[in-house]
Specification:
The chain has 27 helices and 78 strands. By secondary structure, the protein is an alpha+beta fold. Strands 20, 21, 22, 23, 24, 25, 26, 27 and 28 form a nine-stranded mixed β-sheet that branches. Strands 9-11-14-13-12-15-16-10 form an eight-stranded mixed β-sheet, with no helix packed on it. A hairpin with a 2-residue loop joins strand 77 and strand 78.
């Protein structure tokens, strides 16, 4: 019904439309009630009583009087819209408003005050208010309410007192708007309101934002403070109110600063304040890659300041220039405004400018030149060569020679031309005119396009037409104007080919007239050229993708309706001829959807009926709600039907109610058919999801077999219009489904014939829910006591039978039974801990993934080449002389250098060097340590001549093989131990040549294994005294008792940035304080190399409790517990640290306790804090890995953590001596082994693969294995086991085992004793895998052999396949190997100081001079070259007397 107000004979207003009857038209017969408040309305089937007005629907005066309803007016003091007769005292002036102009208006002065002003007098001016003799209150929302003083139409109020003042939200804005209400004391209702603003000047931290505020804010220049009261400023001249008076930096040209160049930065400014007495001067603050750099600055006057002479640097070569935030500050932290956002641009000439062309196209203001002598881009002043050897932009020499082509795309195109060929490379000219007309592709002119030209880097040119005789050719580019000279000509190594693209067929061959069909066209050479176009008659088909044999495109709507159209394809200027046709057919339609309902989560079946449904490739069903859309899949069954899964209703859980919901749109995505996108007549309804209740409060339901399981809940049967809707429920008891009976509030499940504990899982639509677990216990007629008695008797009987059998056969089959028993024990244990392993592995995998998420090279802390080789060659020596300059007194320096140069010539003489090594090895006093040292020193000297070093090594190895066979030793013992210089040289040779393979390939799985071991060990307790752990691979390092512990989360504050978010660290309540510090440092610096981290020994752990209370936690302090002669280290549990405690690492503080007890701490520190000791030595020096406990000599007190050492002493006499691991400990070893299995497999697979992770087999391995095969052939050794053993002793034993046991040789990490013990087990397994002998397991076999007994056979097969694959590879020629060795020498030429190395080698000459001279005189070749005389010359130079 429409309500109309008639104002006159010519003017009327429709003000309301009201629904009066449910359906059908309203009849003309209507009548008012007797009081004229209601109207009776009729339709064919219904009589309704309607109110004449609905004034109560309007909540404000403007809505009420703006509605146009003639019955309604505004009752002012009651603040409601009503009829006049219902408003009290409506006849009095201004109490009832009937016109919008009579609405109350309210204004306040002042309209804003500062949050630091309290009880300020406010004057409110009210218009159109009635007489207010009863009084009014002023109310500031829910903050304050006070009495208002009425003076005519003015009301005087006060702003809130200090305690009632609102807290202005500081981090969002500088003000808060509050509604100020006038409340009538007569009615108790608010009848007028206006907005009032509280502002906060102190939010503004800069002058410009302060004085630009719309409020009364002033800036105090010398206090660096924003205030509403300028009287608080220190000086009159320090008050600022206008932006132009603020201290600020003026806009500057680009400020360019080359890295590593000392340079001042001058900045122009205005109104710079002069620091007053007691205030600090100016500084420049540059934030470079997150690090703040403070540079002293000089204020010349109020308009200029200069950052003093300093050099700057940024990491990485990925950016040629780096814009750096620049802030000028004074008095410590008072910043000068920088409205122009001036930045300093640091730049590197050589970054991203590896070629001459890239260098010369750099911004001329950088001042970069190409330094030809050094072939690099550098600043003029850094090029050490004369100016004629520079190339600079717009200089005398400004043209780069030797252009190079690195990439051509595409490499194929049609003869008709039109292909856009992109040529990338180096030095391809600096101006377009230099290459214009100078590009030929396969001898065909290619016209460069200006828009595609990138100076020096890229040319895009359009191909001309090729002749039929032209098939292929290079790309040639000549750079320059005029004659083409060879040094300015580039020729590609790759060829460009002319091909003939063809098309064969089209699929599908029909689609809807609205388009959207994805069509695939097959053919040949369809990936040629640069541009492809597909036309369906006159309509384009949008190109999607192509390869050589096909291309795809999406059709548009047909412009000519139904029917066949021709399909044509063109590639560049080539038109592909073939009579292909596509048929546009009538769009699909949807006629019926059954059922027309689903649940919120969707995924219920919907059957759809329609026409032409089979022409759609991927039909989708869709629902849209609140502007969010969801889709689900459909399967076409026939042209007229398809089966869909209902889409989920896109409604958030917070919006979901118990009532049904209708989507805003419901329909189908059928290619581009718009008519079915939103179907208007579906009335599709979504009902609330079924909800399940838990089976019981404990989550476990006890049942007898055959008892039904009842799942309770609600909404199990949607209340559809056609009766309760049926849904497909599935309930699984364990893995078995059960028969279901469904009602609205429960599912009755007839349980399958099962016993034991089983998880219950219910599925319906898109929901999967587990209400709990059922425990089905068998209903036995016997009592539990009887069952236990029978079981015990049966067990005793069975045990007796087994004992008799074992006794009977023990003597004959003892060893076999032991093996079987152990194997069965291992199998049983493995299956029992499999689940635990899986869970532990999944958790560990997540941790390792987080730790090594960026292991693309940057995340792994590889040592550089020099440090890596030093740790392998000279283990345990940090600062070896070969890294330093030769140290000799100045008066002897010249003669010593002459002597060493002569000695260098001798070392580079093969006859001398071989004789020298053989003579040293013949001396009885020449120890094993000396042999290793000499081998390493010789390799450092020959680092720059690896071809020569390899030749010498082959001679020495050949001699070693001859001696081994002559002495009748077993051939398999060759290279087993380091008993000769040759064997250590072989290790060092592989060390030099496998560094690249380690970095690119094997390093990642090795580092992952190290991290996995470390993470897994730290998940359980580790004794900080003995190094034993709950989780271990090593029997010797296993804690052999139950330790109760709990995992805690510690929230740690970053020690270098307290403002950064807290870092969550997992620790154990049984960790010592030092262990917690290490875990915190690991979490904070998880991607930082160990040597760059803070040291735990330099930091104290501070526990920050509530109310500012801070406690320093230490391993030993006055609270440490002492029982008898044992003192226990403090743990987190000792201090009762709760979960989620806040910790901080602070610099070490000397307390009264640790200064008094310093002697006690120092005696035990070597053992207690073993994980702090930086050890880089060889594994040989870690023979005794259990630290000794040294009692305090004065008090006799011994320190312990988790286990007391004497307890282990007892066990070693008994349990451990037997080598039989008790089941509980073996379980832990197995669990740890299973958890780490994938990481061990990954490492072994990488090492034993000829082509893994994209890296080819290093040449050194193939070359050395071939050499060993040649030696075996030479000595007629054809036993494959001997050859296999030689190779295993040569590479896995000599190199890989060393690296696996000592990952700190490769990475910048710290290796604890427990990690070392586990890596030793892995290394032993690695060695066993390379052995050909069969290890027969028995009761005396060590646990690590038993642990990997089942894995070693498969590892052995990997090794055999690896050796076999290498032998099948083509041999490496000496020429190729020498080229490779020369390249390696060149890359690492200056790593060691050769003079220092020679001096170290000479010390052995000094010791055995006579023996070496004698050997040289007896050698024919040495005599001919007078090598003995030359050596005596060297000795003369090197001795003091000369």
């Amino acid at each position: 019904m429409t309500n109309i107000r008639v104002d006159s004979s010519s003017r009327a207003l429709q003000y309301e439309t009201v629904q009066t009857v449910e359906s059908g038209p309203v009849l003309r017969d209507m009548a008012f009630s007797s009081d004229h408040y209601y109207l009776y309305v009729m339709s064919e089937t219904q009589l309704s009583r309607m109110p004449v007005e609905a004034c109560g629907q309007y909540s404000t005066c403007r809505e009420c009087l703006g509605s146009g309803d003639p019955h309604c007016g505004w009752c002012v003091l009651h603040s409601m819209c009503t009829r006049k007769e219902k408003c009290e005292r409506s006849s009095e002036p201004r109490r009832f408003a009937s016109d919008i102009k009579q609405c109350v208006r309210l204004s306040v002065h002042p309209s804003n005050i500062s949050v630091s002003q309290f009880s300020v007098t406010l004057i409110l001016e009210a218009h159109n208010v009635p007489e207010l003799s009863a009084g009014v209150n002023c109310t500031f929302e829910d903050l304050a309410e006070m009495n208002g003083l009425v003076e005519g139409n003015r009301i005087k109020c006060f702003s809130p007192a200090e305690k009632e003042m609102p807290r202005v939200v500081v981090d969002k804005s500088d003000h808060q708007i509050v509604q100020l209400y006038l409340k009538s004391k007569e009615t108790g209702l608010a009848f007028a309101n206006t907005s009032f603003v509280f502002y906060n000047c102190s939010v503004h931290k800069s002058c410009l934002s302060c004085v630009s505020s719309p409020y009364q804010c002033h800036w105090c220049k010398y206090r660096h403070d924003c205030t509403h009261d300028p009287r608080t400023c220190s000086f009159q001249e320090g008050r600022v109110k206008k932006p132009g008076e603020c201290p600020q930096l003026l806009p500057a040209e680009r400020i360019l600063v080359p890295v590593n160049v000392v340079k001042p930065i001058t900045l122009w400014a205005k109104n710079l304040p002069q620091p007053q007495s007691g205030q600090r001067g100016y500084e420049c603050l540059l934030t470079i890659q997150g690090n703040e750099h403070r540079v002293p600055a000089l204020r010349f006057n109020s308009s200029s300041v200069q950052c003093q002479n300093t050099s700057y640097f940024y990491d990485g070569m990925e950016m040629s220039s780096l814009p750096v935030e620049l802030t000028v500050i004074w008095n410590g932290d008072f910043s000068i405004d920088n409205p122009a956002h001036n930045k300093v641009h640091l730049y590197k000439c050589d970054a991203q400018r590896g070629s001459c062309g890239l260098c010369l196209k750099a911004d001329p203001l950088f001042g970069c030149v190409w330094c030809k002598g050094e072939n690099r881009c550098t600043l003029k002043q850094h090029c050490p060569h004369p100016e004629h050897l520079w190339l600079e932009h717009n200089g005398i020499n400004s043209k780069c020679t030797h252009p190079r082509i690195t990439q051509i795309t595409p490499l194929r195109g049609p003869r008709e031309g039109g292909t856009l060929v992109t040529i990338r490379g180096d030095n391809l000219g600096l101006e377009f005119r230099e290459i214009q007309g100078n590009v030929k592709v396969a001898e065909v002119e290619c016209t460069p396009i200006r828009d595609g030209y990138i100076p020096a880097e890229q040319i895009v040119c359009e191909m001309g037409r090729a002749e039929k005789s032209q098939y292929t050719g290079n790309v040639k580019v000549c750079v320059g104007v005029g004659e083409c000279r060879p040094e300015f000509t580039a020729k590609s190594s790759k060829y460009y080919y002319f091909v003939i693209p063809r098309i064969h067929s089209i699929k599908p061959s029909r689609g809807p007239v609205s388009g959207g069909t994805v069509v695939s066209i097959t053919g040949s050479h369809l990936d040629a050229g640069s541009n492809v176009s597909v036309m369906f008659k006159d309509q384009p088909c949008t190109f999607l993708k192509r390869e050589g044999l096909w291309l795809t495109c999406r059709t548009h709507a047909s412009s000519e309706g139904y029917g066949n159209v021709s399909v044509s394809v063109s590639i560049d200027k080539a038109q592909l001829q073939k009579d292909l046709r596509f048929e546009y057919v009538e769009d699909p339609t949807i006629t019926k959807i059954e059922p027309k309902w689903s649940i919120y989560s969707g995924h219920t079946p919907v059957t759809v009926t329609g026409t032409n449904l089979d022409i759609i490739q991927t039909p989708l069903i869709r629902a849209k709600y609140d502007s969010h859309e969801t889709l689900n899949f459909c399967q076409v069954l026939s042209p007229t039907s398809m089966q869909c899964q209902a889409p989920e209703l896109p409604i958030s859980p917070a919006q979901q109610q118990d009532a049904p919901e209708t989507p805003d749109e419901f329909g189908f995505k059928l290619d581009d058919v718009q008519a079915v996108m939103a179907l208007n007549n579906t009335n599709f309804i979504y009902y609330p999801n079924p909800e399940f209740e838990p089976l019981s409060t404990s989550g476990v339901l006890e049942l007898k077999p055959g008892s039904p399981i009842i799942l309770k809940g609600r909404n199990f049967l949607p209340p559809t219009s056609s009766g309760n809707g049926k849904m497909n429920y599935t309930v699984l008891i364990g893995e078995k489904p059960c028969m279901l009976t469904v009602s609205d509030s429960q599912l009755l499940c007839e349980s399958p014939n099962l016993t034991g504990r089983h998880k219950v899982l219910a599925r319906v639509g898109g929901i999967e829910f587990s209400p709990g677990v059922v425990h089905i216990t068998s209903d036995s007629p016997l009592s539990s006591t009887a069952i236990i008695s029978i079981a015990a008797a049966g067990a005793l009987l069975l045990l007796a039978i087994v004992m008799v059998l074992i006794a009977y056969k023990r003597k004959s089959r003892e060893s076999d039974l032991t093996l079987k028993r152990l194997q069965m024990q291992m199998d049983n244990l493995e299956s029992r801990v499999a689940l635990e392993c899986k869970e532990a592995f999944a958790e560990l995998q997540t941790d390792i993934h987080e730790l090594t998420s960026d292991l693309d090279g940057a995340g792994i802390p590889f040592l550089d080449y020099r440090m890596y080789t030093m740790r392998v060659l000279f283990p345990g020596i940090e600062e070896h002389p070969v890294l330093r300059d030769l140290e000799v007194p100045g008066y002897r320096q010249e003669q010593v250098e002459k002597g060493l140069k002569l000695f260098s010539q001798l070392i580079n003489n093969k006859v001398y060097l071989l004789c020298f090594i053989r003579t040293l090895e013949a001396q009885r006093g020449f120890s094993m340590r000396d042999r290793g040292n000499v081998a390493s020193l010789i390799m450092t000297v020959l680092q720059s001549k690896l071809e020569y070093a390899t030749d010498v090594l082959k001679h020495l190895l050949s001699d070693l093989i001859d001696r081994n066979l002559e002495s009748k030793n077993h051939p398999k013992l060759l290279l087993r131990r380091t008993e000769s210089v040759a064997e250590k040289m072989l290790t060092n040779w592989f060390t030099f040549l496998l560094y690249k393979f380690l970095k690119e390939c094997a390093g990642e799985p090795l580092f992952s294994l190290f991290c996995a071991i470390k993470q897994q060990m730290e998940k359980g307790p580790i004794d900080s005294i003995t190094g034993e752990a709950r989780y271990s691979l090593s029997e010797d390092k296993l804690i052999r008792q139950q330790i109760d512990y709990k995992t805690l989360v510690v929230n740690c504050i970053h020690p270098e940035n307290e403002k950064s978010p807290e870092i969550q660290v997992k620790a154990l309540n049984c960790d010592t304080i030092s262990q917690v510090k290490e875990k915190i440092l690991d979490a904070i610096y998880k991607n930082v190399p160990h040597s760059h981290r803070l040291k735990a020994s330099d930091m104290d752990l501070e526990w920050r409790q509530g109310r500012g209370q801070r406690v320093i936690l230490q391993d030993e302090d006055v609270t440490t517990k002492i029982e008898g002669d044992w003192k226990r280290l403090n743990m987190l549990a000792h201090y009762q640290v709760p979960d989620n405690a806040v910790m901080a690492l602070v610099p070490k503080q000397v307390t009264a306790y640790n200064s008094v007890n310093n002697s006690t701490v120092s005696r035990t520190s070597a053992s207690k804090y073993e994980n702090m000791i930086k050890y880089t030595g060889s594994p040989d020096s870690l023979r005794s890995r259990t630290p000794m406990i040294t009692p305090d000599l004065e008090s006799g007190i011994k320190v312990w953590h988790l286990v007391k050492n004497h307890e282990h002493g007892d066990q070693k006499e008994g349990d451990r001596g037997s080598k039989m691991v008790s089941e509980i400990y073996l379980t832990r070893l197995l669990a740890t082994k299973g958890t780490l299995q994938k990481f061990v497999d990954d490492l072994f697979e990488t090492i034993f693969s000829t082509a893994h992770r994209g890296s080819a087999l290093p040449l050194a391995i193939k070359y050395m294995f071939d050499f060993l095969d040649e030696q075996a052939d030479k000595h007629n050794i054809h036993d494959p086991h001997v050859r296999h053993t030689w190779k295993s002793n040569c590479l896995p034993l000599r190199f890989w085992v060393n690296v696996i046991k000592n990952p700190q040789f490769v990475f910048d990490i710290h290796k604890s004793s427990i990690t070392d013990a586990c890596l030793s087990v892995v290394a032993q397994t690695f060695m066993d895998s390379c052995s050909t002998s069969e290890h027969r397991l028995g009761k005396d076999s060590p646990s690590n052999k038993l642990l990997y007994a089942k894995d070693i056979p498969s590892y052995k097969s990997w090794v055999e396949r690896y050796y076999s694959d290498i032998s099948k590879m083509p041999a490496i020629s000496d020429q190729d190997m020498n080229a490779y060795l020369a390249e390696q020498s060149r890359m690492h030429m200056n790593e060691f100081n050769s003079m220092s190395s020679l001096s170290e080698i000479y010390s052995y000459v000094g010791k055995y001079t006579e023996e070496i001279v004698c050997a040289l005189e007896q050698d024919d070749a040495a005599r001919k070259q007078r090598l003995a005389f030359k050596l005596e010359q060297v000795v003369a130079f090197m001795t003091l007397e000369s």
